[in-house]
Amino acid sequence: MDCSDGTCTSSWVNDDYTYSLSAAITESDEESPQTLRVAISGSVVVESPGLTVVSSPVG
After folding, report:
1. Is 10 helix (H, G, I), strand (E, B) or coil?
2. Spatial distance between the Cα atoms of 47 and 26, rounded to a whole number of angstroms
3. Global pTM?
4. CB contact set of 30 (below 8 Å; sequence gap of 6+)
5. pLDDT in tens, 6-54
6. I need a surface site. Which of 20, 23, 27, 44 has the fewest CB within 10 A?
7. Among the listed residues 5, 1, 33, the one whose alpha carbon sits nearest the alpha carbon of residue 20
8. Rounded to an integer, what distance in angstroms lies between the CA atom of residue 42 and that of residue 54?
9. What DSSP assignment string belongs to 17-52?
10. Would the CA dihedral through 59, 48, 18, 31 be positive or negative?
11. Distance (Å, whole) CA 14 – CA 3
12. What are the CA-CA distances from residue 28 to residues 12, 21, 24, 31, 32 (Å)?
């Protein structure tokens, strides 16, 4: 996890793909919308902004 310039980002790599989730740092107790980015060899191929946390009961 890396936090700078008002954003926290978590990244991981799987083969040639790099995945990152980023969200703005806020003073609110609510989760900030996140952006998922998928890159291949440094080129972003998917960018999905506005993702939110979905809670589900554990059974």
Report:
1. strand
2. 22
3. 0.76
4. none
5. 999 999 999 999 999 999 998 887 778 999 999 998 899 999 999 988 8
6. 27
7. 1
8. 29
9. EEEEEEEE--SSSSPPPEEEEEEETTEEEEEEEEE-
10. negative
11. 22
12. 27, 19, 11, 8, 8
